[in-house]
Structures are given as C-alpha cells and as structure tokens.
Automatic annotation (TrEMBL):
It holds the Pfam family MR_MLE_N. The lineage of its organism: Bacteria, Bacillati, Bacillota, Bacilli, Bacillales. GO terms for molecular function: metal ion binding; O-succinylbenzoate synthase activity; racemase and epimerase activity. This is o-succinylbenzoate synthase. Transmembrane segments: none annotated. CDD domains: NAAAR.
Length: 368
C-alpha cells in the first residue's frame, strides 16, 4: 500500500451541551486524528476516541498516544502492508488497546478504499443508501431532557436513548412517558445496577422501552444472562462486548437480545464486521453505537451502519448534535430522521483542514 508517513493530531473541542452519566460529565472532548499518507499523496483518515479519563473504557487519550506512537505506528511503518487485513496479524502481540488499533486501522482502511476508488462501506458489503439516525439524551435533570427531546424531535430522530441511573430512573422515565407516550425510547444504564436490583429493574418493564443497555457490570456476561430471564425488556450489551469472542460468548449465554457495535470498542473494522456477521447469522439485531465523536469517526460509523444487519437506528446523529463545527466537509446532517450514505471514495467525506487545524492542540509526524 506504500505508506510513506503517519501523523497524529490531538484535537480538542467543547461540547455544546454537557453530557452527563452517573460516571462522568463530559463538557470537553479530546480525540486523536490519524492521517496515513501514501507516496501518491492520498490520505486515509482515522479517529481514535478514548476519553481523557478512563470512565468508559480503560484507555485514555494519553495511553492511546503511547500505544500508537511506541508500538502500532512503528510496526506499520516497518512492515510493508499489502492489504489492511494484515493489520490483525501484525498486531497479534499487542493486547487490547482497541481504540488505538481502531483509529489507526480506520486510517489504513480509508486509504486502501481510496486507492481502490471505492466507498469504504462497499468494501465490507454495505448496501444501505441511508442510515436511520438515533440520538442520546444525557442531561442533568428531567426538564432539560424533555427540552432536548422536543428539539431533537423536530429533526425527526427515529430513536431516543436516555441515560439512566438507579436513583432517578423511575422518575425520569415516568416523566418522559407522560409527555411522550409513544416515542421509540430506550435507556442506557452504563452499569448502574447490580443483580440485587432485579425487583427494581422489573419495574422498568412498564415503560415500554425498546431495550435497556448495559444495566449490570461493564465486564459481565453471566449476570446479564440471569437478569434477561427475569425482565421483559430486551437487554442490549455495550461495554461487555470488546471482541468477537465476547459476542460469541454473550450469544451462547443469552446475556442479551441486542448488541451495540462500536468499532472503537472492539478494535476496528474487521472485528466489528465479524460481530455483525455473527449476529446476522444468529438473528440478533445490532445497531451502531457512538462515542461523542467528531466527523471522521462518524463517517466510519455511517459506512459500518450501511451493512444490512444494522436494522435498528443507532447512536448516529448529526455533527451539530455535539459540535459548533465539525472536521468533515460537508458536515453530517440528519434529514427526516436519516443520514444519507455517501458514495464518494473512502469515508466519502472530505476533511475540513481549516477546522481540523483550528482544533489541533498538538501534532506529530512519523516517517518510514
Ligand atoms: O454508553 O453508549 C454509551 C458516549 C460515550 C461513551 C459511551 C456511550 C456514549 C453514548 C453517546 O451513549 C453516543 C453518541 O451519541 O455518540
Ligand atoms: Mg452505552
């Protein structure tokens, strides 16, 4: 593939609205933009999306920079790769660090698709022309949550996901259902409950939730399987699916009925597509998760969500959901509840260099 250089840009931007969960309130987002260049001047783009602190996964911006700079990038520059599929074996001796691998892998796949003059989604068998958009509400009180739902409804989002926690769930869900008895609603607990809460969780069945995401331990499969037998609401797994192997075990155990696929959480394109294919085979619906990310990562998500198994609207929202301005051109927009899947080469979006540089805090270049 003739990779001649790789650059990392640490970017930072404030969120338009604070994003609150029971674990962390995010008001400012950092991410690492990865550019992989070939000798013909083409650029492949990836975005690594750990948070600044390890509240969601164990990786952070700093650990990710370390793994990229000291391990992954030297490996890629030292070996001549013929096809991005080779990354999996090239990285076999580096455990986990999924977000670092996913970000660099995205850039290599984007470059490869551009060299092949193909849309990235098409490389993996994507067939959808549009992707159904869903949105996340993570406000610090129920009044603000209701106001956000009202605003997002004008854009036509097809599914609303509310962050919940043990201490306020019934109050928040009652209030939302009082005002919006029929909206497609789901709840994400980010591991706010334990198995001792089964009786409490049974009460949430009355809210007609599409699903409840990750109610129990972030690394648990067994207790989710026990819980799923006790509640009507389908369980969707997020944090506990970090690999194809996890997905396989979750399906064997019956730990949930739905899986949220985030390529950043599972280590990149190949692992994400393998999980998707397994779920299609086993008739488990999947949807594309989000990471409060910028446009490059969103563009990869849109390409992933164009695969046929993504039958449920995911956490794929517009650039303007989180940002005053974004790093892709055109920005990602939601119209009548859908995002149009691009048909250009690679990720199908140009990168807005000016905006990217305006957000860049630090940049580093690595040459072969
Ligand atoms: O648990 O799905 C989650 C954001 C960051 C980390 C974890 C999660 C989320 C979201 C928001 O729920 C997804 C998005 O809109 O990007
Ligand atoms: Mg989640």
């Amino acid at each position: 593939m003739k990779i001649s250089s790789i650059s990392l840009s640490l970017i930072s931007a404030p969120l338009k609205l604070p994003f609150m969960t029971h674990l962390e309130t995010v008001t400012k987002r950092e991410a690492i933009v990865i550019e992989v260049r070939d000798s013909d001047g083409r650029i492949g783009y990836g975005e690594a999306v750990p948070f600044s602190s390890p509240w969601y996964t164990e990786e952070t911006i700093k650990t990710c920079l370390h793994i990229l700079e000291d391990f992954l990038i030297p490996l890629v520059l030292r070996h001549s790769i013929h096809h991005p599929k080779e990354l999996e074996s090239l990285w076999a001796s580096i455990r986990r660090n999924s977000m670092a691998k996913s970000g660099l892998g995205q850039a290599v796949w984007d470059l490869y698709a551009k060299q092949q003059e193909m849309y990235l989604g098409q490389l993996f068998g994507g067939i959808r022309k549009t992707v159904a958009a869903g949105v996340v509400i993570a406000a610090d009180d129920v009044k603000k949550a209701l106001k956000q739902i009202e605003e997002f409804a004008t854009i036509g989002y097809q599914r609303y996901k509310i962050k919940i926690q043990r201490s306020t769930d019934v109050e928040v869900l009652s209030e939302i259902r009082h005002h919006y008895p029929d909206i497609p609603l789901m709840a994400d607990a980010n591991s706010s409950y334990s198995l001792g809460d089964i009786e409490h969780l049974k009460r949430l069945d009355e809210f007609n939730l599409q699903m409840i995401e990750q109610p129990l331990g972030h690394d648990d499969l067994m207790e989710h399987a026990i819980l799923q037998k006790e509640i009507e609401t389908p369980i969707c797994l997020d944090e506990s699916i970090c690999s194809f192997h996890d997905a396989k075990q979750a399906l064997l155990l019956g730990s949930g009925k739905v899986i949220s696929i985030k390529m950043s959480r599972v280590g990149g394109w190949i692992e994400a597509v393998n999980i998707h294919n397994l779920c299609v085979e086993k008739e488990i619906p999947v949807w594309c998760g989000g990471m409060i990310e910028f446009g490059i990562s969103k563009a990869h998500n849109i390409a992933l969500a164009s695969l046929n198994g993504f039958t449920i609207p995911g956490d794929v929202s517009s650039s303007s959901r989180y940002w005053e301005y974004d790093i892709v051109d055109p920005e990602i927009i939601v119209e009548d509840g859908f995002i149009t899947v691009p048909d250009g080469v690679g990720i199908g979006f140009e990168v807005n260099e000016q905006n990217l540089r305006a957000m860049t805090v630090h940049q580093q270049l690595y040459k072969s």
